[in-house]
Amino acid sequence: MLPRFLLDTHIAVRWLIDAKKLSREQIRVLEGAVRRTEPLALSAISLLEIAVLTSERKRRLNASLNELFHQLQPPVFQVLPLTYEIATEAASLGNLRDPADRAIVATARAHRLTLMTSDQRIIESKLVPVVA
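^ that's the sequence the OP posted. Answer follows.
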């Protein structure tokens, strides 16, 4: 089964660590995907963001990098690689400054996925369908 939803990095982290910070709609979609054994997609750039976040201790995640990565495995998660197509698409998204945001949005566009995010800049950009 192919994924229909791509999770922004903060959504994946919140779901694994503190689901109370997710919207009702986000929780509904996530729980529905798990019930249907439908994988949830992550951009490969999210793995780097999580690793940096953990190593820099910007947030108290109450979990080690290995614990987080262990939870981000199939069959629940499917990591989508950065490709030439995605990099080219990301370069064209000048209205988003953060390179990781560009890569995540470009990944959603390239795979025709709905992005789950709480990032207002991405939501307001209307570059991709979102679950906010």
